[in-house]
From TrEMBL, chain A:
Organism: Anaerosacchariphilus polymeriproducens
Matches recorded under InterPro entries: SGNH_hydro_sf
Lineage: Bacteria, Bacillati, Bacillota, Clostridia, Lachnospirales
Chain ranges passing through the membrane: 7-29
Keywords carried by this UniProt record: Hydrolase, Membrane, Transmembrane, Transmembrane helix
Protein name: SGNH/GDSL hydrolase family protein
A GO molecular function held by the record: hydrolase activity
Domain of life the protein comes from: Bacteria
UniProtKB/TrEMBL annotation, chain B:
PANTHER family per the UniProt record, alphabetical: ACYLTRANSFERASE (PTHR13285), PROTEIN-CYSTEINE N-PALMITOYLTRANSFERASE RASP (PTHR13285:SF18)
Protein name: MBOAT family protein
Transmembrane segments annotated in the record for this chain: 6-22, 29-55, 75-93, 321-339, 345-366, 438-455, 475-497
Main location class: membrane
Entry GO terms, CC: plasma membrane
Localization of this protein: Cell membrane
Keyword Acyltransferase recorded: yes
Family to which the UniProt record says this protein belongs: Belongs to the membrane-bound acyltransferase family.
GO molecular function terms listed in the Swiss-Prot or TrEMBL record: acyltransferase activity
One BP term from GO: alginic acid biosynthetic process
Membrane topology: Multi-pass membrane protein
Top-rank taxon, per record: Bacteria
């Protein structure tokens, strides 16, 4: 019994030490002037009022401007997109948002890579963590943990200290700590890079694609290949749709436009279109595939992209307006076939 | 589940709680179940092979008890053939087929179908040697056979050691495994400390050096001899930190259960000769080859004949060395082959053998030279020089395991001789390592070296245990913080240990 007491005392010391160390390091190293932090606060501020959300990766984050949707559809929308967001996390993230908000419409990004991403391959831990850290509820955090992270990522997922890349960047530490101590969050967007962060989760830039060459590996990665589909991803796609339908939420699958130069190189796009169309028809939901948009050659020009896959500010404005237009028309009974090659 | 992952520590904690909660006489059952759960978690499909080894070892060792000596020999031969046969097929089938087909290609005959491949189960090289060692001991009446098959199963597959050793001996390990152990704070505390120390070495040194070594050996064509040589040195340090780190973790885990595993390292970098280095590096493997291969071979008929040949054609004193040289040649060939089914590992083993045999052969000459230059063995400077020389030899030999093929090893050797550095800069000394990473690495190596130096005097943990509570706490919390802050975690790091592939 004496031994057990001794061990317990030591375990408590170790636990408290790790806890203090982790909190301290988070305070020192977790970037303050980062829109991802601000977005979490914005979400909290809008709690109970969000009616429309856009879910997906950085393409969603950059391509949907919620302010245009708010204005045109008279709604309160929010962009939930984050870099390389795996669909498994999308499910849990969306679930939390639905629990806290009267969501009516969901636009879910589906692309050639959505189902092919191997979330068990430990190569995108930071991407997963950036969304995982945004989950509010501890219960969801614990339940989702095992679905999101493979065993090899547990250490990085649990311990913030294992993710710090540069411990000796004293200039960063100084500015970050100063920024945190100055309570910039409370001053609204003051602490955020307002040039690229447009609010409500949307990030956009003015840079224009300069015609860089596309590597063959990149093309292969961004193409559709049926055999690369991960069962786990399909399961979560179905879970998202079923959850929305169960909650009486309208869900739309959207494949956002891609740089025409890249699209010309991609393969398997017809198979992808058929695959997502089958899912959409199975659940009687709409699928907006902008790879097959009939007017894409005249609308989504190269200069509206900042790189191969992301749109710039101008492109985002055009895309958001076109999507709203098609969405409204389809709600009035117009067939999607009129806009997309099905 | 690797032993440096959070899942392993959760698994270990659960096993420890259950182990000390059950009745003492049932503790070994708890370990046995935990061991096979651990093995299943690494892959169910490979379970059949460890079962084959366990069952055949159990049957053979018990059968040997009730038969004549001649029959005993037959049973042992059958057991060895079966188990080493399984190992041979699973680990060396592809290599053998590749070589047969190459030879067939030269003489233009029919090629064998090489579409069939096998996946060697985790730890097969280790548990096969351990169980065969036990069978040979039973044959030689060095120990009695175990009557309970589940106890044999525990001996073969005790979870901390089953994947990378240490290769235990039945007489040392079995009694500890089957005995009941009372929970002792000292065991728990020392066990945890050793695990921490293992993690320190693995995460701060081995995993930090791993990408550097990989980069140098992968892009050897773009590096000059200095970087290639440093690659070999880095690999030596990396492998030591990796393997000894693993040993510390498993020995620490076993210590929590009150079980002391055999030590595999005894500060090998302080060795003054390659032979001594091998007595202090991977001790349980060297010991296995010494006891079960070297000794029987050196007194075998072939060795005796070879010795007679030496005495006849050279001199009596040289002839006396012949049986040892004969046995050493085979042992080193086997050591190379045991590490991996490839010619570069065989070459590595043979190179080790040649250096050791040469040193035996040239020993009289060395003695004369030392006398000539008035060099005494007790001279510290001379000893240090020998230590440095041994370290360099060990490092240079890493050119074989470091490269990804025999051809590449030879190209690297050629480059090391011919490609002289044009300019010496940071990138040529520390490729793939930024300044902050170098700081973490140097910190780790300095602590590691300091501990190794002190370890020669007394165990460091004994020294720490004598300190007052706050100092002890500071040391351990400092270690935890160092691991978290300076250690490498993630894809490659938690992927596993270098010696698990052997």
């Amino acid at each position: 019994m004496h031994s057990i007491k001794k061990i317990l005392l030591r375990l408590i010391i170790v636990f408290l030490f790790v806890l203090i160390l982790e909190s301290g390091l988070r305070f020192i190293y977790e970037p303050n002037e980062d829109y991802s932090q601000y977005r979490k606060i914005e979400l909290e501020e809008n709690k109970g009022e969000i009616e429309m959300v856009f879910c997906g990766t950085s393409r969603t984050m950059k391509d949907y401007n919620p302010q245009i949707f708010d204005k045109k559809l008279n709604t309160n929308s929010f962009n939930l997109g984050t870099g390389q967001q795996p669909i498994s996390i999308t499910y849990y993230y969306l679930k939390e948002i639905i629990e806290k908000n009267p969501i009516e419409v969901v636009f879910l990004e589906v692309s050639p890579t959505t189902l092919c991403k191997d979330s068990d391959r430990a190569n995108d831990t930071p991407a997963k963590l950036s969304v995982y850290d945004r989950l509010f509820n501890w219960k969801t955090k614990i339940i989702s943990f095992f679905d999101i992270f493979p065993v090899s990522e547990y250490e990085e997922a649990i311990l913030y200290s294992t993710n710090i890349e540069s411990l000796f960047d004293f200039e960063f530490i100084k500015s970050n700590v100063n920024s945190k101590l100055s309570n910039r969050y409370e001053d609204g967007l003051k602490g955020v890079d307002t040039k690229s962060y447009k609010g409500k989760g949307h990030v956009s830039g003015r840079s224009v694609y300069k015609g860089a060459e596309i590597g063959s590996k990149y093309i292969e990665k961004k193409s559709w290949e049926g055999k690369r589909i991960q069962k786990k991803n399909v399961k979560f796609l179905n879970k998202i749709i079923q959850m929305c339908l169960r909650e009486g939420i309208e869900i739309n699958l959207v494949t956002v436009p891609v740089n025409p130069k890249l699209q010309a190189e991609l393969s398997g796009l017809d198979e992808m279109n058929n695959y997502y169309l089958d899912i959409a028809s199975h659940y009687s939901i709409d699928y907006y595939n902008f790879y097959n948009y009939r007017k894409k050659d005249n609308v989504f020009l190269i200069e509206y992209f900042s790189d191969f896959i992301h749109m710039n500010e101008k492109g985002t404005e055009i895309f958001s307006n076109y999507l709203i237009d098609i969405y409204l028309k389809s709600k009035c009974g117009e067939e999607l076939e009129k806009f997309f090659v099905l | 589940m690797t032993v440096n992952s959070i899942t392993f520590f959760v698994f270990l904690l659960c096993t420890v709680i259950i182990y000390y909660s059950v009745k003492p006489k049932h503790q070994w059952i708890c370990l046995c179940i935990a061991s096979y759960i651990f093995y299943i978690l690494t892959g169910v499909s490979t379970l059949v092979y460890i079962f084959i080894t366990t069952i055949t070892t159990y049957i053979a060792t018990n059968w040997m008890q009730s038969v004549t000596k001649k029959r005993k020999r037959k049973i042992l031969t059958g057991l060895l053939l079966l188990n080493f046969g399984v190992l041979l097929v699973l680990k060396y089938y592809g290599f053998m087929l590749f070589n047969i087909n190459r030879i067939a290609g030269i003489v233009n005959s029919v090629r064998l179908d090489d579409s069939l491949t096998f996946v060697a189960p985790l730890g097969i090289s280790y548990y096969t040697l351990q169980s065969m060692g036990y069978a040979i001991d039973v044959y030689k009446s060095k120990c009695k056979p175990e009557r309970n098959i589940f106890k044999v199963a525990l001996f073969v597959g005790f979870f901390p050691q089953m994947t990378q050793g240490p290769i235990g001996r039945f007489k040392d390990l079995a009694s500890q495994l089957y005995a009941s152990h009372k929970f002792e704070y000292r065991n728990f505390s020392f066990g945890c400390q050793r695990i921490l120390w293992g993690l320190f070495k693995k995460t701060i040194i081995a995993d930090r050096l791993s990408p550097v070594v990989r980069n140098i050996f992968t892009h050897y064509g773009s590096y000059d001899n200095l970087t290639l040589f440093l690659g070999c040195v880095y690999m030596t340090i990396q492998i030591y930190a990796d393997f000894s780190g693993y040993m510390d973790i498993v020995c620490g885990a076993a210590e929590i259960f009150g079980i002391k595993l055999a030590e595999n390292f005894k500060t090998p970098f302080f060795s003054s000769s390659l032979a001594e280095y091998w007595r202090r590096w991977h001790i349980t493997l060297s010991g296995w080859f010494r006891d079960y291969l070297f000794y029987p071979l050196s007194i075998s008929k072939a060795a005796v004949k070879f010795g007679k040949f030496g005495k006849k054609h050279f001199s009596v004193s040289i002839g006396k060395m012949f049986p040892a040289i004969f046995a050493l040649s085979i042992v080193w060939f086997a050591t190379g082959l045991w590490h991996d089914a490839s010619w570069r590992y065989i070459l590595w083993g043979v190179a080790n053998g040649i250096i050791i045999i040469s040193s035996i052969w040239l020993e009289p000459l060395f003695k004369k030279t030392k006398l000539l230059f008035h060099i005494k063995d007790s001279c510290k400077g001379w000893h240090r020089l020998q230590v440095v020389r041994t370290f360099l030899i060990v490092s240079l030999l890493k050119v074989f395991p470091g490269a990804s093929s025999t051809k590449e090893s030879l190209i690297i050797i050629k480059r090391m001789i011919t490609e002289f550095p044009v300019s010496i800069n940071y990138k040529s000394i520390f490729p793939q390592l930024c300044h902050s990473e170098l700081c973490y690495l140097v910190f780790g190596i300095v602590i590691f070296a300091g501990v190794s130096f002190y370890q020669r005097k007394e165990p460091v943990r004994e020294y720490i245990a004598r300190q007052v509570f706050p100092v002890r706490v500071m040391v351990y919390l400092g270690m935890i913080a160092s691991i978290l802050l300076f250690g490498v975690f993630g894809t490659d790091a938690v992927g596993g240990f270098e010696y698990a592939q052997y």
